[in-house]
C-alpha cells in the first residue's frame, strides 16, 4: 500500500520515510504542488518493476515473453 505525504513533511521526516520504504517495502508518494509527484521505492523494487516492464509484450513490436 502506498503512503502519501507532502514535500515539506518528506523533508522533515526523511529518515522515517526511508525506514517505511525499506522495512515493510511500502511505496511513498511525495506530493509537490505545481510539479509532478514523485515516488520513493527501494532499488530492488524498482529493478523488479523495470524487469517486469521489459518482459511484458510491447504494444509496438509485439515482443516479450512467449
What do you see in this structure?
The chain is α+β, with helices and mostly antiparallel strands. The protein is built from three helices and three strands. A hairpin with a 6-residue loop joins strand 2 and strand 3 (38-40).
SSE blueprint:
Blueprint: E1 2-6, H1 7-12, H2 14-22, E2 27-31, E3 38-40, H3 43-55
Parallel strand pairs: 1-2
Antiparallel strand pairs: 2-3
Sheet-strand content, in percent, reads 15-25%
Output the CATH topology of the domain at 2-44: YefM-like fold
Tally of separate helices? 3
State the total count of DSSP E strands.
3
Structural features:
alpha+beta; YefM-like fold; 3 strands; 66 residues
Quick take:
The chain is α+β, with helices and mostly antiparallel strands. Helices cover 42% and strands 20% of the residues. It has a domain at 2-44: YefM-like domain (YefM-like fold), CATH 3.40.1620.
Amino acid at each position: 500500500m502506498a503512503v502519501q505525504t507532502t514535500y515539506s513533511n518528506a523533508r522533515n521526516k526523511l529518515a522515517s520515510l526511508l525506514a517505511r520504504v525499506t522495512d515493510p517495502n511500502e511505496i511513498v508518494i511525495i506530493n509537490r504542488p505545481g510539479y509532478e509527484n514523485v515516488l520513493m521505492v527501494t532499488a530492488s523494487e524498482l529493478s523488479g518493476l523495470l524487469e517486469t516492464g521489459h518482459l511484458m509484450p510491447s504494444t509496438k513490436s509485439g515482443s516479450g515473453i512467449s
